[in-house]
Amino acid sequence: MAEKEDAADEPIIIKKYANRRLYNTAKSSYVTLDHLAQMVREGLDFVVNDAKTGEDITRGVLAQIIFEEEAKEGNTMLPANFLRQLIRLYGDTLQGFVPGYLDASMETFAKNQERMREQVRQAFEANPALANFEALARTNMEWFENAMRMFAPFSAGMQKGAPGQVRPGGKDVELDELKEQLATMQQQLNKLVKDG
Questions:
Q1: What is the CA radius of gyration of the chain?
Q2: Does 106 lie in the same domain as 181?
Q3: Is the dihedral of CA 47, 33, 112, 129 positive or negative?
Q4: Beta-strand (E) ranges in 26-156?
Q5: Is 170 exposed, middle or buried (0-12, 13-18, 19+ CB in 10 A)?
Q6: Domain region containing 58
Q7: 97, 169: one domain
Q8: pTM surpassing 0.70?
Q9: Whole-angstrom Cα distance, residue 127 to residue 141?
Q10: Which 8-state DSSP code applies to residue 127?
Q11: For residues 122 and 129, is the Cβ–Cβ distance under 8 A?
C-alpha cells in the first residue's frame, strides 16, 4: 500500500512529441495547453518531458501557457513595465536572485489572495466585515507597490534614454489603473455599508 501512496505523490508525466502533441501518461490521452492550464489551477503537479530525448521541458511549456493566456483579449496580468524589468535582469549579476524572490513573492500573494477571497465571502454574509476587506485590499496594494519598487533599482543603472526604459520617477500607467479600480470598488463597498 505504501507504493500506491508514493506513486500518488509523484507528478503526472506529460510527453511532448515532435508534432507538438502532448500526451498525459496517467490518463492515456492527448491533452492541450488548456488542459495543462486547468491541471495547474486544480493543483495537479505534472512534468513535461520531450518524448524523444526525455529532457524536462516543463518550464518552457508553462511559459507557453502564460504566453497564450496573455494573448487572450482582456486576460492580461503581466504589466509591460514588469516584463521589461524582468527582461533586463537576464544576464545581470542578480539574475540568480530573481527566481527565489519571485517564488516567495507569488507565495505571499497567493496567501493574501485566499484571505481576500475569505473576506469577500464574509463581507457579503455580514456587512460589518467590509472594514476588514478594505484593510486587506489596502495591504495587498501596498505589497504590490513594494514588489514593483523592489525591481525599480535594477533598472536605475540603465543608460538614460535606452529603448524600453521607464522614465525615472514616472508612474506605471497600469498601477494607476489598479489604484483607480480599487478606489471605485471602495466607493461601491462604502455604498453597500450605508445601504445595508
A1: 21
A2: yes
A3: negative
A4: 29-31, 46-50
A5: exposed
A6: 2-71
A7: yes
A8: no
A9: 22
A10: G
A11: yes
Q: What is the pLDDT of residues 14-73, one digit of tens each?
A: 999 988 899 999 999 999 999 999 999 999 999 999 999 999 999 999 999 999 988 887
- Of 71, 105, 125, the residue that ends a domain is 71
Residue with cell 491541471: 39
Q: How far apart, in whole angstroms, are the C-alpha atoms of residue 173 and residue 179?
A: 10
Q: How many domains does the chain have?
A: 2
Q: 116 CB contacts (<8 Å, ≥6 apart)?
A: 133, 136, 137, 140
Which amino acid is present at 9?
Answer: D
Q: Are residues 41 and 87 in the same domain?
A: no
Q: Are 9 and 43 in contact (CB under 8 A)?
A: no
Instruction: Note whether 49 and 13 are within 8 A (CB).
Output: yes
- Secondary structure element (H or E) that encloses residue 13, with its range: strand 12-16
Tell which residue, 45, 68, 53, has the closest CA to residue 17.
Answer: 53
Does an H or E element contain 102, and which? helix 98-125
